[in-house]
Amino acid sequence: MRNLAVAVGCLLLLGGIAVVVIADQERLAAIAAVKAEIVRVEHALEESRGENLDLAQRLTTLRSQIAEQDAKIADTTGFLQ
């Protein structure tokens, strides 16, 4: 009976070690996946910053054109022409 208890105890110990090793491997894989996602998001953020800068420049140009057109429309006397 004692031998059986020792054998079962050893099997439980080996099973526990295996579970810990598998859990650690899954944790490392999850960490690697998160790091890869962070790199992808940072790359997408850099691209969007460049696009936002281009759009801001176009918006500034459009706003200045609108201001000029508003000034022409507001001049009812024709003084500015």
3D structure, described in words:
With 81 residues, the chain is an all-alpha fold. The chain is 90% helix and 0% strand. The protein is built from 1 helix and no strands. The radius of gyration is 34 Å and the shape is rod-shaped. The mean pLDDT is 91.
The residue ranges in which pLDDT falls below 50 over 5 or more consecutive positions are: none
Give the averaged pLDDT, no decimals: 91
Note the overall shape: rod-shaped
C-alpha-based Rg, rounded: 34 Å
Number of strands: 0
The main pleated sheet reads as: none
What gap, in angstroms, lies between the N and C termini?
110 Å
Q: How are helices and strands ordered from N to C?
A: H
In short:
With 81 residues, this protein is mainly α. The protein contains one helix and no strands.
Fold topology:
Layout: H1 2-74
Key structural traits:
81 residues; mainly alpha; 1 helix; 0% strand; rod-shaped
